[in-house]
Amino acid sequence: MQFEIDGTSRLPIYQQLVHQVREGIARGDLRALEQLPSVRQLSRDLVINPNTVARAYTELERDGAVYNRPGRGVFIAGTKTELKKDARRQRLLEIVDKLLTEAVHLGFSEHEVLRLVSTRSEQFQWNAAQ
Fold this sequence. Notes:
CATH class of the largest domain: Mainly Alpha
Structural class: mainly alpha
Number of strands: 2
Order of helices and strands: HHHEEHH
CATH superfamily of the largest domain: Winged helix-like DNA-binding domain superfamily/Winged helix DNA-binding domain
Oligomer: single chain
Shape: globular
Largest sheet: 2 strands, antiparallel
Helix content: 40-55%
CATH topology of the largest domain: Arc Repressor Mutant, subunit A
CATH architecture of the largest domain: Orthogonal Bundle
Low-confidence stretches: none
Number of domains: 2
Mean pLDDT: 89
């Protein structure tokens, strides 16, 4: 997976990296047990401070998206299932509410939002077993 930094974004660089890894996992571009570039290598490739990459990896590890094997590297973790279904549902509802609030403020109709979500959802990897 190729990481990119948008210098014009108001989102901090470490959050851009976190978002790209999470999206890569959701889309199936990054798979469980796949190794991410080392902090040093990614910071060189993107010409950013190594502490920025380390901060992104730390946040991803805290969220359970990746795990660190000292001396071996950072790897993609499996799907996050340790949260109980009710907690996962509540977390998703909060995100959906934010999306819908933004859509209303942008002037989209309910039909337009549903159609867009349906179209975009086809681009992601879904695990129905959970």
